[in-house]
Amino acid sequence: MPPVIGITGRLAMQEERHLDGIESSYVKAVAAADGLPVVLPVLEPDKAGAMARKLDGLLLTGGRDVEARRYGAVPVPEAESPEPERDEWEIALLVSALAARLPVLAICRGVQLLNVVKGGTLVQHLPSVSSLVHRQADRHMQFAHSVALEPGSMLASIVGSTELGVNSLHHQAVDRLGGGLTAVAWSDDGVVEAVEGRQVDRLIGVQWHPELLTGKKPHARLFTWLTTESARGQSFEERRSLMSPSADLESDGSPSSAVA
């Protein structure tokens, strides 16, 4: 059976009705990599452990800014309106996924959330610190700039290169690294473009949107990595034994400091 990949959804409105959903590009990217994509609604945080036990891997998707207070900051004027329900759900879900040792691929907002959950901080508005234009929405399926990858990193091994063209749709980025994470890619202005955990942790976060670039093999390989690692995961019983309602991981690289 293909590995079940949970894809975090977002809250939306259509004709005055509330919706849970996500762009189909994430779903198609996972399916093309032989995974079984399941879009996850935004639920109450106390459902996160039960959800994680049903998954083989987790894909954290893009979206609005992570609320600044969750990493101890005051929001700048350029910050987007927060989505506290989504933040709380995804923080709880990621904590549960890490406790269950699920592979995680975190994209754009996802890598920012991963860093915050690990105790790191974010640059709240890149135009205030860089002249490179990082939010190029009109080129979402094109290369906006290149990134340099750390030779010997897990990410460089997956994509098969130490330089990569990427799209760029963000105005925030990783600042101080969270525990257990290593920066492994940078744009020309020094902004962190990707992080990873130890190889055994099976955590990769990228600031660009590879789901929109899967026609390019290096970007498609990120989803192949996720589904391949997820297929190697523990059995349901093993995952359940790793998780308990009181699971709380500390500064060895596991979550603890994000404000709920």
Structural write-up:
This protein has 260 residues and is α/β, with parallel strands linked by helices. It is built from 7 helices and 13 strands. A hairpin with a 6-residue loop joins strand 12 and strand 13. The radius of gyration is 17 Å and the shape is globular.
Unreliably modeled segments: 246-254
Indicate the radius of gyration in whole angstroms.
17 Å
Give the neighbour order of strands across the main sheet: 4-1-5-6-13-12-11-8-9
CATH architecture: 3-Layer(aba) Sandwich
**Mind describing the biggest β-sheet?**
9 strands, mixed
Q: And the CATH topology?
A: Rossmann fold
* Approximate shape: globular
Strand content: 15-25%
Q: What is the averaged pLDDT score?
A: 87
Through-space gap between termini: 35 Å
Order of helices and strands: EEEHEHEHEHEEHEEEEEHH
Total strand segments: 13
Look at the structure and name the CATH superfamily. Class I glutamine amidotransferase (GATase) domain
**What percentage of residues falls in helices of 4 or more residues?**
25-40%
Treating each run of at least 4 consecutive H or I residues as one helix, how many helices?
A: 7
SSE-based structural type? alpha/beta
- Provide the CATH top-level class: Alpha Beta
Give the domain tally: 1
Brief overview, please?
It contains 7 helices and 13 strands. With 260 residues, the chain is an alpha/beta fold. It has a single domain, classed as 3-Layer(aba) Sandwich (Rossmann fold), CATH 3.40.50.880.
